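Researcher: Here's the sequence for the chain we discussed earlier.
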Amino acid sequence: MNRSKLVAFVAAALLITGAVFAAEPVKNEKLLDPAKLTAKAPDVFKVRFETTKGPFVVEVTRAWAPNGADRVYNLVSNGFYDDTRFFRVVSGFMTQFGINGDPAVGAAWKTATISDDPVSQSNVRGTVTFAMRGPNTRTTQLFINTVDNMRLDNMGFSPVGRVIEGMEVVDKLYAGYGEGRPRGRGPDQMRIQSEGNAYLDELFPDLDSIRTARIVE
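Model: Thanks. This is the structure I predict for it:
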């Protein structure tokens, strides 16, 4: 290929690339301001998660944990969980997700905590619960109990819902990385917060993903 043809080829490639970038979905600006996403959830609602292993459905019951249910409702309604990874999958324990793949969105929600809810349901297999690091520290991260974890009840972990369809899909989510750093070889949550999906895609390419999460009838 002579020089003139090469230049033309590169220029065309750049134009095509630009067109692809231009077609990328626009970020939901509401996700950058957690204080605006405070709608009250319905008494009961269902969320369908489309994942790389297939779909599963979670039924959220507001009476179980009102603050948590409201937070889930607002996050799902605004696409927060779309294109996020199941970054902590520990066999015989649970599956965790809920750090946004866009570092700007992750930063906005990092300190957007909600008050604790009393524990009214037990952390049995299939229940969905917010992760936390102490009192009143829940933000966006959720986990699905893949076995009965009743010991979490006395630690303040309050389930907000349960998987009513597709638990077999949850069981198939990739668990090869195991526990996260520094205790295991899985992803570092601080790096997910600061670097987003780019970090996970480069170093943990086998993680399964949530393609979309939508409220359904």
